[in-house]
Batch of 2 targets.
Target 1
Amino acid sequence: MVAPGSSAAHALLGILRTEIFQGALVPGQRLVEAELARRHGASRGTVREAITLLGNEGLVTRERNRGAHVRPVPLTEAIEITEVRAMLEGLCAAKAATAATAPERRGLRLVARRLTEAAEGGDVVSYGRLSQEAHLRIREIAGHGTVSAILERLRYQSMRYQFQIALLPGRAVRGAGEQVRVIDAVCSRDTAGAERAMREHLEAEAEVLRGLAEFESPLRR
């Protein structure tokens, strides 16, 4: 149940966002206010506001006389988003390598250790959460407000595919290794290495998405 109050819509936003990412709410599915209000113990007004916020993040579309639906993100768009992220997050990694304080470096190394443990233990949910935490921490350390705002929107639109990628055999372990290399470079103040490692990590994800697109293409003919 979502507690009442000014933060209720944002709390419900987080719940619905997770349901979209994990496939409980599927692309094209209609979001019925009354049903969501009953399921989550929220008011219709809170649900309406949360759906509006999802729309602002590019996760939901509204059509006249059809209401709100989970927005399908085509694989081609997800590939483009990941390519843009590689460039922008590479910049953030380079800046973080210069700016990181000793406590921030310790925090990153802790995330790296937990990320590796989750991947090697097959805990994909924890791996996904820690992967997002690693990216967010690096962005915050970089302190580039403009890039961070752009990445926040892009992150939500592509996260559904990131979860699917993590489920592929061996991908979580490889992804963890890629991110550990990013963190090692940041913590070593290796600006060029941090940027290169981040770009390679996200370009590897883009390559996986391209493979999925090639697999899907014949099925649609």
Target 2
Amino acid sequence: MSVIRVALIQSELVWQDSAANQRYFAQQIEKHKDVQLFVLPEMFNSCFSMDSTRIAETMEGLTVQWMLQQAKLAGAALCGSVAIAAEGKIVNRFLFVTPDGQVQFYDKRHLFRMGNEQQHYQAGAERVIVCYLGFRFCLQVCYDLRFPVFARNQQDYDVLIYVANWPQPRRQVWRTLLSARAIENQAYVLGCNRVGSDDNGLSYSGDSMVVDYLGQIQTELAVGQSGVVVTQLDLSALEQFKQKFPAYLDADPFVLTPSF
């Protein structure tokens, strides 16, 4: 398949209330029948909470089961991050669930030090590429956006997905870096952020958007407002552009070695 329809769901989140957040997202998913991939924000079921032992679920828990159910009902993939307890640790896990019941995941590598995330969650060590409907998606979470080496396209993905709780005071950084990642990696970039405020005293502007491989904003949501934006990604157009402008052939070779 050379075209895929994707939806970004930008919303307020209810603090540590998984059921309320899931009800809202289910309503939005049900309204969009022609979408093949839904993208939800970081920690979409709980907000960006450091009360990790309270909010963490297992891979057999209610949120993963809810995602599986929604993916099956919608006939579409569903992705977003959740606090997960697994193998004796708690991680900020980006889950990618497909309608046939597959669950793939990436554990956030770069933990937000200024919010003490590293004190409550354990960092992941490897990036993850998910293949779905002919597209290759590289999964990333929020603060990962500031680290371009980790996201460097080694011609193993077509789309970068960033899910986030990115605060309003740094919204210009978010917008700038999403475009930068698209340009330097010659890839589509999906950035899904939340709006509203949380119990950390932070406010969020959203600025959820789809950026094309030229770094241009293809579509975006209204600042500070809940909503859904739907657009399509064209793999053939991306490949044609890379054939005409193969900057990746002159990229500096490197091997990424985890330091922890």
